[in-house]
Amino acid sequence: MEAALDSRNIGLDLTRVTEAAALAAGRWIGSGNFDAAHTSATEAMYNMLAALGIGGCVAIGEDRIVDGNAALCEGVVFGEGQPLCDLAVDPIDGTQLLIEGKPGAVSVIAVAPRHSIWSAGPAEYLDKIVVDRDAAHVLVPECMDAPAAWTLALIARAKKKAVRDLVVVVLQRLRHHELIEEIRATGARIYLRQEGDAEGALEAAMPGTGVDILLGIGGASQGVLAACAVRALGGGMLARLAPQSSEERAAITQSGMDSRKIYTVDELVASDDIFFAATGLTGTPILPGISYKGSHAETHSLLIRAKTKTRRFIQAEYALES
Asked: pLDDT digits over 283-320, tens only?
């Protein structure tokens, strides 16, 4: 991928993609209209990817139908000729948050060399643990089955702090009732998220956010997309299939996937040549949300490049059509 993209600034191109999706979705903040917000962001992301001519194939994408088409579903190809890279996309991570006007929604995209991003196949859910670079070295497969107290003690020791000073991100779901009670029993603090799984993992993987670890079951696609950011940041991640229905279990079994296997971040994204871009929609601990100011709009984006170990925060101003 690198040789083919050296002549152009693919990172800034990707930022333009997430900015386009954010600008389209931003008008639907607080609207309560899920379908309109999702459709607007998906179409904007698709159109920008098509206009930029990035030679890629969607490895992780959308499964919702937009106007009769799955515009960003797995297998969609952009650019001419043989695809050079894998694309992992989510026009809005946290659509429900966006339409309710709540913080935590972002638009995200990642690019890695072709066939390097793991395919979730029929899997819809993954059990995940995500930490930043300071704790990545202590994250071992045993953490997936160990009591939360044991894992949190490992992380606290690596980060040179007490367990009660850790902040843990968990999705607010009934399936996490026992996990939440385990964490509370340790004295650690919990940040319960309504949704926005990929953004929650990004907070856990990025230094300086105030979040130390993400635990629990979330979307498989969002998990793989998050893995791109985690690896680019030098963080640690473990994941395992966690089917939530008999239909999903049957599909996984039929596909031949091993539901017991524990994946590391290096298996979820098998390359260090990763670009990851995100643009804030409703504001997060990392990125301010999009704002409209009469004749223009302002966006705030994050661009990570794994190979050069750089993080760039980009503020952009867009003139709005009158």
From this structure: 999 999 999 988 999 999 999 999 998 999 999 999 98
d(CA 284, CA 271): 28
Q: Quote the tokens at residue 165.
A: 């000073």
CA dihedral 147, 153, 158, 159 (to 10 degrees): 120
Q: What is the mean pLDDT of residues 140-147?
A: 96
Residue with tokens 């690019």: 111
| CA–CA dist 231, 298 (Å, integer) | 29
- Alpha-carbon distance 233 to 221, whole Å? 19
**Contact predicate 258/251, CB 8 Å:** no
The DSSP line for 14-65 is: HHHHHHHHHHHHHTTTT---HHHHHHHHHHHHHHHHHHHT--EEEEE---S-
88 CB burial (10 A radius; 0-12, 13-18, 19+): buried
pLDDT at 2 over 90: no
Separation between Cα atoms, residue 219 and residue 125, nearest integer Å: 5
Burial readout 262-278 (b: 16 or more C-beta within 10 A, e: otherwise): bbbbeebbebebbbbbb
